[in-house]
Amino acid sequence: MRGLISRALIATILLIGAGRVLAQEPPPISTQPRVEGPDISSERRGSPLETLESLAGEGKRESSEIETDRDSFTPATSTTPRGRFILEAAYSFIDNRGVKETHSFPEFLLRYGLTERIELRLGWNAEIGGAGSNVSGSTGGEPFAEPGVVEREYNICYGIKVGITDQGRLLPRSAIIVQVFTPTGGSSGVSTATAFLASYAAGWELPNRWRFETAIRYGLDSEHGDRFSDWAPSAVLRIPIGEKLATHIEYFGLATSGKEANTTRHYISPGVHYLVTPDLEVGFRLGWGLNDQSARFFVNTGFGWRF
Questions:
Q1: Among the CATH numbers 1.10.3720.10, 2.60.120.10, 2.40.160.40, 2.40.10.340, which is that of 49-306?
Q2: Is the pTM higher than 0.90?
């Protein structure tokens, strides 16, 4: 009798549980059509920009603060953010040995971010004195006058800068710059040949926010019909002081090869730059020549504005 009652009780419990499962309503099925977001990438699909980005390796390289090429001889390893401009301008005074001093201005350079890794560059400069300006990373320059003579040279530059790698462990952030300089006027006898200049820059940001960057520059130039090559290695250590102020110490050298009378110059150059806003920087640097073929000293001051 007890076994019969137990089996009946178990059966009753199973029936009640099954009824509850059957009584549950299935979840409602949405009849609203699925809304797909716009395919932003399709806007550039097959476009020249997509081709450029695929060749350079598309990726975001924008810095929260402006990084100019003008605040040291070594160019920045960053590129201008896509769709934005960086305007740079500066003045250099160079106390040459054996020839008149040189004034270089406005060292104008306009950079435009075509993609996240590719920027276009356009510049203009005037050099007045006994030698070309060779202390700025954005200009070339060799002596173009005889002692006691003041000459003028004006040139336009145009080119491209491409970001190559981003920093990762031992891999540096790097970029290449290719540009040409075409004289647009000046004193009679000044070279009218177009000069070619290519630079490779690489650097690392250290855990303490210090940055070490180095570069090598190669150029093809001429002087009075004498064609020759320029080589310019450089290295700079950038040290932040607070959030807006930073200083640096830099070495750079310039040497010619294939010239009738080759020259070698070495410089040491400290500098300081200040961020007025994240998009506006002002800076000052000076330097001294380390051998007799170098200028005695130089000063350079200027600004960079990102918009």
A1: 2.40.160.40
A2: no
